[in-house]
Write a structure and sequence with these properties.
Layout: E1 2-5, E2 8-11, E3 16-22, E4 32-37, E5 44-49, E6 55-57, E7 65-70, E8 75-80, E9 89-95, E10 107-112
Parallel strand pairs: 2-10
Antiparallel strand pairs: 1-3, 3-8, 4-5, 4-9, 5-6, 7-8, 9-10
């Protein structure tokens, strides 16, 4: 099970920190990622972190978002800075590649202009 939290409404240029709590052992050794889906768009992967802590990002968020994880606690975080209206979406965490049966409810991030 994956439970995301931390979303909200923020103005352009603001910051939010998202958290993802994973239960069970299936995610503990997998690469994890944050995905987002805006209305009318496909879900996209925006940040990924491997078991060893290596990270990479979509070009659209590089330099603004930072992904982290605590393997012992089975949690994944996403620090989002310098938010833009185009970051508005529902954000989800999942393994990379995603485990389709494990999508959570996501957390809504809305950035006002």
């Amino acid at each position: 099970q994956l439970v995301e939290s931390g979303g909200g409404l923020v103005q352009t240029g603001g910051s939010l920190r998202l958290s993802c709590a994973a239960s069970g052992t299936v995610f503990r050794i997998k690469a994890m990622g944050w995905y987002r889906q805006a209305p009318g768009n496909q879900r996209e992967l925006v940040a990924r972190i491997t078991y060893s802590g290596a990270t990479d990002y979509a070009d659209s968020v590089k330099g603004r978002f930072t992904v982290s994880r605590d393997v012992a606690k089975n949690t994944v975080g996403l620090q989002m800075n310098a938010l833009k209206p185009e970051d508005t979406a529902v954000y989800y965490c999942n393994a990379v590649p995603a485990l389709e049966n494990y999508w959570g409810q996501g957390t809504q991030v809305t950035v006002s202009s």
